[in-house]
Amino acid sequence: MSPEIALPILMPLMSGAVSLVFWRSRLMQRLVAVGGTAGLLTTALWLLASVSREGILVMHMGDWVAPFGISLVADLLGAIMVVLTGIIGFAVAIYSLATAGRGHEAYGYFPLMHLLLAGVAGAFLTGDIFNLYVWFEVMLVASFALLILGSEKAQMEGAIKYVTLNLLSSVIFLIAVGLLYGMVGTLNMADIARRLATVEEQGMVDALAMMFMVAFGIKAAAFPLFFWLPASYHTPPVAVSALFAGLLTKVGVYALFRVFTLIFHHSPGYTHEILLWGAGLTMLTGVLGAAAQYEFRRILSFHIVSQIGYMILGLALFTPLAIVGGVFYIIHHIIVKTNLFLVSGIVHRLRGSYQLKRLGGFYRSHPWLAVLFLIPALSLAGIPPLSGFLAKFIVIRAGLEAEAYGVTAIALLVGLLTLYSMIKIWSEVFWKSVPPEGEVDPYPRVRQQELWLMVAPVAGLALCTLSIGFYPAPIHALAEASATQLLDPEGYIQAVLGDPGGEGP
Q1: Which of 85, 303, 306, 416 lies in disulfide reach of 287, CB 3.0 to 4.6 Å?
Q2: Which residues are CB-neighbours of 479 under 8 A, at least 6 positions away?
Q3: Does residue 263 carry a pLDDT above 60?
């Protein structure tokens, strides 16, 4: 029995339930939000330490062993993703203390946030393909409710696009799960991998692989069905945007890594060629979209799309170095992207706008904020020695070694265009003078205590970025060990099902 596998799911569920008990107490809901996410981070670190020490951990619910019962499985990739969920959840909970309005809290902001974190953690730890679908739906319900909190027109329009595309993804996912069950008679991912290796109908296997690729590609906001993301992520409160930006698309990327390294890895040529060019087009279209925007959060939203391309490129190349690069990129990007959204929220709180043309003068008036922006911005662009440099370097080097010159050239070009977008934000928001009176929105008054609650998580995440950049060895070692596990699916299968000649797990 390894309780640390279930605790990252149970902790946010219990926090959400306690928040509901204290529905009328704003103070208690806030205390539970910070305490619950701190508990999630603590249990996630416990889980990562256990997996690093003991290898892949498995918990069979109700003592029904796999493949007959529901299994929770934690390998290094899953444990890393849960730790990142805890970090982002904790940072956003603190930030929300200053930014979540009374109206949002009265309609369940914090319980929904806990439910979303439970769905994310559940998706990372489930060993069952149908339960992966269930956790996706939990995330979809919670994220849709968070998107429409406030009921503004822009939020409703964004939420409709968001939920429509994600429901389409869910339908494709569910049909694929049904067809897969009809083919192999099991829903346990380890058992599916073992049985699928003996299936003779390769055409049907390829068709199922394509269905999962489309379903998870939509969740990950990959080309060509990514437009729901920049249409919706700039509409909710900034803490919600930051939570979505850091975690939601990465669940789709994680699902792609999981199924295409465990289940559909037997004939990677066909599917991985599609993934390869999908990654290139995702990078290119995302960064071009960002270059055309002049709204802070829209630029960052399009850059989520372009950066997802780098992660998928790591999977598509399917070499040990490329998988290391993909995992490293996910770790770096979750921290950096969340932080950039949180910085945009501070700018908005201080000047009342996300429009770059209505902003300016922050370098002179708030130099500390300029520094806190530059750290994640330059890291996103891949400037050494920040975390994004090593992430990009590994992926691009893997591309050159695999002789994928076309898509590697796109990755290099996208890095330059990303730098252009970050310089555009810097010059408009921080460097230029404040626009003349009448062209800017009235400055809202911000209490010092609220400002500190917003700055503290931003500074903490910036410190994480600097730590990864200047001392990358531990994260690189984790990514390398994770890639080794991903490229050895038999280890995952044996951990869940046991040795076929032995007595089981």
Answers
A1: 306
A2: 324, 325, 327, 328, 331
A3: yes
